[in-house]
Design brief:
189 residues, 3 domains, three-stranded mixed beta sheet, 6 helices
Amino acid sequence: MKGYRLASVGAACYGGPMKTYLFLIVMVMATGGCITTQQQRLSEARRQREFDALKADLYRVKEQTGSASSGYEQIFADIARVRREQSDGDKELADRLDTLELRVRKQDAALDAMHKQIVAELSKKMAALIKSQKPAPGVEYGREHRVKQGETLSEIASAYRVSVTAVVRANGLKDANSIRVGQKLFIPE
């Protein structure tokens, strides 16, 4: 009686018993901890895009700090040239050059610290991205197979080029002979 009520509630919500069964199947698949090959490809493509974006960010930061550093080198060269050209009696100009040089060195140190911080943050993000590329413990990649009339687990495993033991373990089967027609099996890669 309870099963009937559940089915009738599902039928009322989703438009009929067939849609209820499809909904339940989708829910079981979504919560089963299995990742299909297509999901794996999409996940790998997303990770690759993230990795490429991080590489682009790192290259941009490197380019910006390189151009800033070369600008500072030019300023230091100009200061040295002006010092060589100045007359010995112009103390005020020498003091101004010293102040300017000190400010430029502080700016250069701040830029260098910022560069190191950005590289450290990007390195952490890249490490996390690389770590996320490994499947989580207990999550396997593979395909689903619906058992057809007359199929054995040995034939199914052979068709997918995996061992019977791997299919038994991935599906939590107690016995390799305990499959039935219509049963969905997860076939690990």
